[in-house]
Amino acid sequence: MKITKNSVVVMHYAVSDSEGTLIDSSYDHKPMAIIQGTGYLIPGLEEALIDHQEGDKFEVAVSCEQAYGERHDEYVQTVPKELLQGVEELAVGTQLRASTDDGEQTVIVIDVTDDEVTVDGNHPLSGLDLSFDVEILEVRDATAEELAHGHIHSEGESCGGGHNHAHGEDDSEDANKSNDEKK
Questions:
Q1: Residue span of the structural domain in which 28 resides
Q2: Are the C-beta atoms of residues 15 and 132 closer than 8 Å to each other?
Q3: For 67-81, how does the pLDDT look when each residue is reduced to its tens digit (9 = 90+)?
C-alpha cells in the first residue's frame, strides 16, 4: 500500500543538519506513527512520504523553508528581569510561554544578566536545512476513530483505554508532539 492522505505511517527517522550533525533519531527508540496529511510533520518531509510504501528506505533533503522556516531576528527580545518575577529558574535553555500579538508562544531563554533576560521565539531548528534518513515500517488506512481524534491508536486500543484526552478539543497536537515538536 502506498502512502496517501490519511494513511497511518509508522517509520523510523534520523534527522541531521547540513553539516551532517545528528539532531534526533528514532532508530534506538520507538518508531514514529503519524497520520499522513494532518500537518504533524514539517511540510518537506510530509511531501516526501507520498507514494512510498512499507519497506522503503530513503533520504530526503528539506530546505529550511519547507522545515521550520527562516530565523527572524525580531523574534529575539531582551526584557527586564523584573517582568519574569515568579519564574523559578531563569537559566539559558529554559522554555517559557509568552503572550504575543499572535497568541501564546514558546520562547527559549538565551541569555540572563543581573537586570535582563533575552528570549528567542524562533524554533530551535529554524534557519536550518535538514536531511532525513527514513525507513517505512508500516502503512495502513487510518480508522474513522483515528481520523476523528487526529492521532494513532495502538492495535486493539480505543479512546477508552490507554490514553487520556478530552473529546471535541484539539488535543492531537499536544498528544503527538513527543519528538521535538514536529519532525
A1: 7-68+126-176
A2: yes
A3: 999 999 999 999 999
